[in-house]
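Can you give me the bound-state structure? Components:
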Amino acid sequence: MTAQEANAQFKVVVVGQVARDLVLQIERMPDDGGSVPVQKRQELLGGKGANQGVACRRLGADVSLVGVLGDDQAGHTVLAQVAADGMDVNGVVIRDGAPTALLLDIVQPDGVRRLFEDVDSRVLLEAGDVRASEDLLRSANAVLIQLQQPAAAVTAALDAADPDALVVTDGAPPDNQTRERVLRRAVVVRADVEETEALVGWKPADLTETIEAAQKLLEEGPRVVALASPTGGNVVAWPGGHVVLPFIEEEPVDPTGAGDAFVAALTVGLLHGQDPETAAWWAAVAAARVVGKAGGRPELDLDEIRQAAANARRR
Amino acid sequence: MTAQEANAQFKVVVVGQVARDLVLQIERMPDDGGSVPVQKRQELLGGKGANQGVACRRLGADVSLVGVLGDDQAGHTVLAQVAADGMDVNGVVIRDGAPTALLLDIVQPDGVRRLFEDVDSRVLLEAGDVRASEDLLRSANAVLIQLQQPAAAVTAALDAADPDALVVTDGAPPDNQTRERVLRRAVVVRADVEETEALVGWKPADLTETIEAAQKLLEEGPRVVALASPTGGNVVAWPGGHVVLPFIEEEPVDPTGAGDAFVAALTVGLLHGQDPETAAWWAAVAAARVVGKAGGRPELDLDEIRQAAANARRR
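Here's the bound-state model for the whole set.
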């Protein structure tokens, strides 16, 4: 039995951003008024929601996406890409008259990237968009919710999830009321350094403070807290313990989507009944696989990740 | 009689680049690893050939474009835009399996722009592409040729133009043999500072040297030479005289396409029987109209430009 077959029972719904992702690789940035040739162009499915969805799918889960596209040509192209990547599109809303979000990712040879985000407010989720997918959400084993979406949509997703579902939130809550709801309901809370500040009220300056922040958040309800450290790498904490995950990529090409693969693999690991520390190592390996490739859409193989995670952990 | 009607007899063929032009306006460039929101996104018809063609069309000429698009979705979108802008598309080649050129134009509030050019060699013109439009070229009153295209295509265009046609070249010749042919055949030669170096063998350091370079080029055949000066503005020279054109834009927004409007208006002015000095003032005004607007596709009105040029000249 392959990992994918073993895993087919897991239903994951991702609530978040779906976008066009235009990735341009260049040798160097042009000066003011200057021009540079593009070494490589890719036009991909993108956005945090789609990236997390693709990663969960590649790790073997059944994935439904809940997000909003414009009714432009790009929207229809992106919708076809979501379907081609094996995800269910019934929760994807095509909004009349709105432009599909565009993420432009300019990547240099050393893996340094610059992101230009064009996200019209009309392609953010509304509570009604989420409620229209209530049945999907209620039947999911895991619900991944991006907190960059408006508060009403986040709340609707938290409310619709099954009480036994693994609710995973990613990012900073849009307001204090939503923060309370998130910490009360989420099983897993994931944040980068800036987002951690929004969650705990102060910005961790080092690894020790990141661990402190994770422990403080655990006291408010979540069972697993995963925070990026300002010193690089990630901390994953659970009641009574934590692990510090180093960056384990070899040749960084493009950090886009590494955080999304981290969340996806952490979720899938926990769905597989792994303890938080093991799931955290899966997450670190999945993130490393993404950073080695331009464009935020990783090839991921669960068996390979499981093995690489065991090896990385032993070191 | 409107200017457009008076002008309808002029047939202009533009031989050069046709592309998608993605224009993003931002407040500031992101740092390494950072992200910024996009203030405004435009997806336009672009490329020097298309920009010069649109400008000639808006100045009232009948315009045919000779250029190459890919057979992708973008190519078909761009082709429709060329037609919607009132240009003849019979000379536009759709190349099997090639990606349509993408120009990404990132513009800041002060009008500073950075250009990212993704032009696959397969969407450059081949001699056969140009020869397939021989009848178009032979019947044109003016032929605008971009010297960024391969030597064989440039030569084919020079050869196909009617002996009485106003042949206008823009840019630096790809090699020395092409340089000889260009200077022998072109009536008008246009170049920026870098391109002037390729034409005369040295780079003008100031206005005096730019005038010297123009006079040297006039000795080799062209009747009008238009060179950008490193000190800003342009020099237009003819046997026995020259004029220095200042930049006359008020609020610079995006310099994209200003040089293309300059060439187009200079060409249309000369077709209208204006002396080089008058045509040069038309060109300077047309360029100013473009710089005041993002995206390189100006609204141009011949009567307004004629009047504004007369006013600017009087100052």
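A couple of observations. Chain A is about 40% helix and 25% strand. Residues 10-28+38-314 of chain A form a domain with the UDP-N-acetylmuramoyl-L-alanine:D-glutamate ligase fold (CATH 3.40.1190.20).
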